[in-house]
């Protein structure tokens, strides 16, 4: 019994970005050769390193403080930003699954910081302001 499998092809597309500085962004894509549709198993977004995706799942969210934890488009770094109350300092604590503190950062209202060099694994995060936990959840780096 034979099974037909669509052929895959990989191609590079360059998209000009920040043309005043002359920088070019290279994006790698995979598509079915026959249909032009994206493949079900996309090419890793972080070619050359081990990190392929960053997923954030929130357990507790604040309505008063808008906390955002999100990866960049290439899934290489994690952004932490806050839009809450003026004058407040917001602290992000990142723990491994054994409860050890892995990373800690502080920002003020309407600021964004970047967490780089993320190790692969599962983590718990908590966001505090004025010794009050306002958000927490889980972070998976694969």
Structure in words:
- The structure is a single chain.
- By secondary structure, the protein is mainly β.
- It folds into 2 domains: 1-43, no CATH class; 54-141, Immunoglobulin-like (Sandwich), CATH 2.60.40.3080.
- 0% of the residues lie in helices and 54% in strands.
- The chain is built from no helices and 10 strands.
- It has a 5-stranded antiparallel β-sheet, with no helix packed on it. A 3-stranded antiparallel β-sheet has the order 4-5-8, with no helix packed on it. The protein has a two-stranded antiparallel ribbon with strand order 1-2.
- Strand 6 (89-96) and strand 7 form a beta hairpin.
- Residues 2-48 have low confidence and may be disordered.
Task: Please summarize what this structure is.
This protein has 142 residues and is mainly beta.
Q: For the largest beta sheet, what order do the strands appear in spatially? A: 3-10-9-6-7
- CATH topology heading of the largest domain: Immunoglobulin-like
Low-confidence stretches: 2-48
Structural class: mainly beta
Tell me which CATH architecture of the largest domain applies here: Sandwich
User: What is the CATH level 1 assignment of the largest domain?
Assistant: Mainly Beta
**Percent in strands:** over 45%
Number of helices: 0
In total, the number of strands is 10
Radius of gyration, taken over Cα atoms and rounded to an integer in Å: 19 Å
Spatial separation of the terminal alpha carbons: 37 Å
Total domain count: 2
């Amino acid at each position: 019994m034979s099974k037909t499998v669509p052929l895959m092809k990989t191609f590079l597309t360059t998209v000009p970005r920040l043309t005043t500085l002359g920088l070019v962004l290279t994006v790698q894509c995979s598509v079915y050769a026959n249909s032009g549709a994206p493949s079900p198993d996309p090419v890793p977004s972080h070619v050359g390193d081990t990190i392929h995706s960053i997923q954030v799942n929130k357990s507790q969210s604040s309505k008063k403080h808008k906390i955002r934890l999100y990866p960049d488009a290439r899934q290489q770094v994690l952004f932490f930003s806050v839009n809450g109350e003026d004058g407040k300092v917001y602290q992000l604590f990142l723990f491994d699954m054994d409860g050890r503190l892995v990373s800690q950062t502080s920002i003020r209202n309407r600021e964004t910081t970047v967490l780089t060099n993320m190790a692969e694994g599962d983590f718990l995060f908590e966001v505090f302001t004025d010794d009050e936990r306002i958000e927490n959840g889980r972070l998976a780096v694969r």
